[in-house]
Amino acid sequence: MTGLSPFAGRIIWALKLKGVEFESVEEDLTNKSDLLLQSNPVHQKIPVLIHNGKPVSESLVIMEYIDEVWNQTCPLLPADPHQRALTRFWAKFVDEKVTSIELNFVLLKAFASMWSALQMRGKEGGEAALEEAHENLRILEKELEGKKFFGGESIGLVDVTFGSFAKLLDVLDEVMGSDKKMIDEDKFPLMGKWKEQLSELAVVKSCLPPADKLAAAVQARRNESAAA
Amino acid sequence: MTGLSPFAGRIIWALKLKGVEFESVEEDLTNKSDLLLQSNPVHQKIPVLIHNGKPVSESLVIMEYIDEVWNQTCPLLPADPHQRALTRFWAKFVDEKVTSIELNFVLLKAFASMWSALQMRGKEGGEAALEEAHENLRILEKELEGKKFFGGESIGLVDVTFGSFAKLLDVLDEVMGSDKKMIDEDKFPLMGKWKEQLSELAVVKSCLPPADKLAAAVQARRNESAAA
Questions:
Q1: A93–B42: do the CB atoms touch at under 8 Å?
Q2: pLDDT tens per residue across span A165-206
Q3: What pLDDT digit, counting tens, does each position of B193-215 carry?
Q4: Which fold has domain A81-227?
Q5: According to the UniProt entry, what is the EC number of this protein (chains A, B) (predicted)?
Q6: Does A139 contact chain B (CB < 8 Å)?
Q7: Which of A202, B28, B203, B226 could connect to B16 by a Cys-Cys bridge, CB 3.0–4.6 Å?
Q8: What CA–CA distance (Å, rounded) separates A178 from A85?
């Protein structure tokens, strides 16, 4: 189910932006392959990029690697050291505060519960976590002020780091037929515009998460909720 | 009490390794200064590096910034993209799995409890966390095989990221007069050697955490334990 991972999505976006040919290998995370276990023995997680036979793990690390190796087109990091530091700061912020697996899970749970009319209120700190998620989205929204992309006039590291996640949420919204978007565009208008700008890029269009797989995952969760 | 922070320590090590003149401003974290709040409004945490009037936050980000701006001496990152990726991978590993504030707290608590003959066993998952800490140290120990420093023949980003923490633990051992070291050298002999190699560097010698402040912090914790 690696096709659903926004972390794997970052790498696919980055490689496509650079125009690099690659082969994407799906991984069954309930039965990890020897290739994965040997390539990323420490974390045993996707994504892993294998280039010239050498593996690189951790999506932020992989993206910087891609940017350094294929440095002739579409820079993901700017040239100026201070701008580079800000870019790394925000990519880390998105990684730790917005797209972390735990948060992802809370968002999905909250959404699944809206959909199945279950209440999250007060349960397992769900509401506090959701409020924190919104607070972090507000911080990010502010970062988009006066800019087309987080990277400025063109897509950069922060756009890729956050974009693969935002697009996943969009497809989820669609699949679930919700009348309210997970990243609510009334609350986050700049983010709404940013997602439109992203959607106009051919590369991004070619990287949409697979709606059929997402629909199946949603159905599985729905069955779990009904059984609980 | 920023003098006790291994995260601030990383920046001081990095600047000294580069031979950069700097002024260190102490911060009372119970009463944060306007300068800190304005310089790092998102996280409101130390360390922050202010260079040419522009702030940079997050210690890993700051270290890369330092390496890029003062790139003529003592490279913290190697030149080869794959080696750079591995260096970033291990710095991230140390940051997230070994020196994270939460883990720091568990280690200190476990140590304080040994010292005051309180038992951590089964309490608040302390033992499981400590076991995880040891497992992560074992992974790091393996990374030192056949190498003088994590950076190879000379000190690099991973050494700085982990070293400021390891030295803090050493001084803590000393201050507390423990007969067993927090990073047990029987269990982690390569790390023991590595710390010796570090200690031989003049720059590291000049960065030892302040024993008097640590002694006061230990005493405060001792009083807390006695009162509990």
A1: yes
A2: 898 888 888 887 777 777 888 999 999 999 999 999 999 999
A3: 999 999 999 999 998 888 888 78
A4: Glutathione S-transferase Yfyf (Class Pi); Chain A, domain 2 (1.20.1050)
A5: 2.5.1.18
A6: yes
A7: B203
A8: 38
